[in-house]
Design brief:
By secondary structure, the chain is an alpha+beta fold. The chain has one domain: PDZ domain (Pdz3 Domain, Roll). The chain is globular and about 35 Å long.
Length: about 90
């Protein structure tokens, strides 16, 4: 079983909120982690758009609207959307 550590924070504009470390574990009977990643034009960051009920993302603590700042120790703040998706898929 593979696992990913994702650092996420609620999006609050200029306010700094605490970062949560979410542990996602791949399930043998489920493909992926159960969330959609979104890039918003003219807004910095990568966001959780949708979470399926039950799969690893929900049980791991991710929330819709979270801004992802790190995946398995890799800071993704300056990565483009395609690079982040590639990192996410390489970790599975």
């Amino acid at each position: 079983m593979s696992a990913s550590r994702i650092a996420a924070t609620d999006d609050a504009g200029a306010r700094r909120l605490p970062v949560r470390l979410c542990h996602l574990h791949a399930w043998s009977d489920f493909s992926g982690y159960g969330f959609n990643l979104l890039a918003i034009k003219d807004k910095r960051g990568h966001y959780i758009q949708n979470i399926e009920h039950g799969p690893p993302a929900e049980t791991g603590g991710l929330r819709v609207g979270d801004r992802i700042v790190e995946v398995n120790g890799i800071n993704i703040s300056s990565e483009n959307h395609q690079q982040v998706k590639l990192i996410q898929h390489q970790q599975q």
